[in-house]
Amino acid sequence: MSAIRPLLRYQNARSRLRQPRGLASSVEPLRNSPQAPPPGDDHVRIVEVGPRDGLQNEKKAIPQHTKIELISRLARTGLTDIEAGSFVAPRWVPQMAGSDSILQHILTSPPQSPGPINFSFLAPNARGLKNAQEVLKLHTLDASNRNTIEISVFAAASESFSQKNLNCDIATSLERFKEVIQGAKAHDLRVRGYISVVLGCPFEGRDISPQRVAEIATNLLEMGVDEISLGDTTGMGTGPSTRSLLKAMHAAGIQNEDIACHFHDTYGQALVNTAVSLEHGIRIFDSSVGGLGGCPYSPGATGNVATEDMVYFIDSLGMKTGIDLPALAEIGEWISGEIDRSNASNVGKAILGSRRRRAGESKL
Ligand code: HMG
Ligand code: MG
Q1: Running DSSP on this structure, what letter comes out for residue 254?
Q2: Cα(106)–Cα(100) distance, rounded to whole angstroms?
Q3: Atom 23 in ligand 1: which residue has the minimum CA distance?
Q4: How many Å lie between the centroid of ligand 1 and the Cα of residue 241?
Q5: Cα 304 to middle of ligand 2, angstroms
Q6: What is the 3-state secondary structure (H, E, C) of 194-230?
Q7: Sequence-ordered list of residues with C-beta below 8 angstroms from that of 130, at least 6 positions apart, any chain
Q8: Which of 84, 109, 134, 245 could form a disulfide with 210 if both were Cys (CB 3.0 to 4.6 A apart)?
Q9: 261 an active-site residue?
Q10: What is the predicted pLDDT for the residue at 203?
Q11: Rounded Cα distance, 107 and 115, in Å
Q12: Chain centroid to CA 245
């Protein structure tokens, strides 16, 4: 995508000339618009965020070997994207301290996997990128390592959330990200740009302007991010609000290929919102094995939609993820046990339950 970014920027600029941002949501997407995926586009890319988003909120320190084991097990399932850690201030998110040794492990002992994996790490500022680069400098990816490393910045769609999560306003955060994005790009690293609370904020409520989200996304794309992940941090999103947001993104000239959706399942709407997004043409979704997680700065928000539930849902539509669902179900059960939580994946529990039943019957 990055090769054609200048072209897209031009296209975005043109569409902005034709379509003032303030009126973005009043425009219906065209039926056969270039946004619609070509027929047969039935592949969905899943970004597994369990090792980062899933674990970051756990109060009890999780041993490094458990985090590494989680990543290694996930790598064997056919996943192509795993968010592995976070270069944030340990005082803010203690559980992510030690992400440097996770990155080092990935570089020096690449987990076995059926294909190359893109491993991503959050970095909110130049300090975060510098810490990641210190490790990357010492252990460059050699030719035998087919994996890639990605850096993610994370903005917010509300001022209150930006203050709580990043200790600065949105404009300042974007200014800081510029340096992170340029620094990462200078080292040929792919960059993802999250926008949190796009469908509801724990402090400002549901009234988040989709046009404002599209404006922040456009800023991030123009700074050079390769992909935007729209974060429904609170899980307050509904089918209609998801649709309005994606329409606003389209009206701002943002391509579906540049958008991922990141639904937390606090209100049980994540798969409904996924269905709406699929219908709109989105083909990248974030999810967390076992439904692990929550954001430390979004009180009450629960985990991402479980990867097992997401894969089962996509399979049921006849679409493809390339991911081994029974293997995922086992990982969800295992990691939930390791961190003393109950498994939050309905599909995971159903698969394991029916396996246990069959094993019991065969013994009779
Ligand atoms: P601050 O306190 O304003 O930072 O926090 P500061 O620059 O004043 O520095 C304070 C201390 O932190 C200093 O150390 C810095 O060196 C250190 P001291 O001198 O006091 O010993 N520091 C760092 N250390 C390590 N790595 C760094 C770093 N930066 C500063 N990168 C800051 C500003 C951005 C650092 C802080 O607010 C922060 O780390 N925030 C991260 C919060 C977070 O990780 N939230 C969860 C991830 S976002 C999320 O989950 C949402 C998402 O899933 C999508 C969705 O669901 O919506 C992505
Ligand atoms: Mg999240």
Answers
A1: -
A2: 10
A3: 89
A4: 30
A5: 6
A6: EEECCCCECCCECCCCHHHHHHHHHHHHHHCCCEEEE
A7: none
A8: 245
A9: no
A10: 96
A11: 15
A12: 17
Ligand in closest contact with the CA of 180:
1
Phi, psi angle pair for 120, to nearest 5° = -115, 155
* Helix/strand/coil for 57: coil
CATH topology for 42-362 is: TIM Barrel (3.20.20)
Neighbours of 125 (CB within 10 A): 18
Token code pair at residue 110? 């690449």
Question: Which two three-digit tokens encode residue 301?
Answer: 């928000």
Domain spans, the chain: 42-362
Rounded Cα distance, 328 and 27, in Å? 41
Please name the residue ranges forming H helices in the chain.
5-18, 64-75, 99-108, 126-138, 159-166, 170-186, 210-223, 239-251, 270-280, 307-316, 325-338, 346-363
Angle at 167 between CA 166 and CA 170, to 5 degrees: 65
158: how many CB neighbours lie within 10 A of its CB? Answer: 25
Find all residues with CB under 8 Å of 88, minimum gap 6, and list them. 96, 122, 123, 124, 128
Backbone φ, ψ for residue 283 (5° rounding): -130, 15
Q: Atom 9 (ligand 1): residue with closest C-alpha?
A: 89
Q: Find all residues with CB under 8 Å of 44, minimum gap 6, and list them.
A: 278, 283, 284, 285, 314, 319, 320, 321
For 77-108, write each residue's pLDDT tens digit: 999 999 999 999 999 999 999 999 999 999 99
Ligand nearest to the CA of 234: 1
Q: Which two tokens stand for residue 338?
A: 């390791």
Length of the chain: 364
